[in-house]
Design a protein that fits this description.
The chain has about 300 residues and is an alpha/beta fold. It has 10 helices and 10 strands. The protein is about 45% helix and about 20% strand.
Length: about 300
Amino acid sequence: MTTPARPRLLIVDDQPLNIRVMNEIFCVDHEVLMATNGTEALEICRRHPPDLVLLDVSMPELDGLEVCRRLKADPALRDMPVIFVTSGNTEEEETRGFAAGAVDFISKPVNPVVVRARVHTHLTLKFQSDLLRNLAYVDGLTGIPNRRRFNEVLSHELRVCARSGEGLAVAIIDVDHFKLFNDYYGHPAGDDCLRRVSGALLSVMRRPRDLAARYGGEEFGCIVPAISPDHVIPFFEKLRESVIDLRIPHETSPTFPFVTVSVGIRQVVPNAGTTPLDVVSAADESLYKAKQQGRNKCVLSISQ
């Protein structure tokens, strides 16, 4: 496996000359970001996450060790490799650097051949690790995110929306009478049905933060952050109709001659005490009501 054509590097050093030297080494085949202090480096990492950070250890105010510790304490940034670039090469300094979370050390003045080789090695390791991590979050049948990814994204979005005051809608979606479908058409047709339903969900959920995942069996989970209350039902009605529009025959369904879904929705403006279990349980209750009411329906639960 090779790294992408232009990996993104962040070079952090309080001496502009050192940054210029590093930029000359990497600018041709890397996208180079630059920061002259620790606070600026952390802000860049949050706004434009680099693939790797080349970080000076000795800087005023916020030194490299503390910057590295803060990166490793942030769940969204902790997997970003940090290489310390330092004029000191004592055993004690290396011990403190590795304890802070660094993956390597490079001594000043830098040797271009050495620094390029080490950066390439750690970028390759990072992209291999990212690939394996992403595979662990993908459902093997449908190719969309799995329940593990759903749970992680829900926890994250609850925190984000609690800070911003944004609304959040979560839905649990069930393919109606799927056992009857499998029994009549066979499991290969059932697998194809689930793949096509997942495609229909993705066709509606187009915003970057929207997530559609396979929750388990014939159930799907959807997370829609930053949605206004007035838009929740129209949004999920469009999603429900997108499945009907697939026109997948379901001759044994007592509900409809084509495959349909029932949708249970929880709409909430979360606070610090809102848990994923609270939200999913409420969406599940709404799904149960949708089934009680004849299926092929959206039922909404709103937090008070």
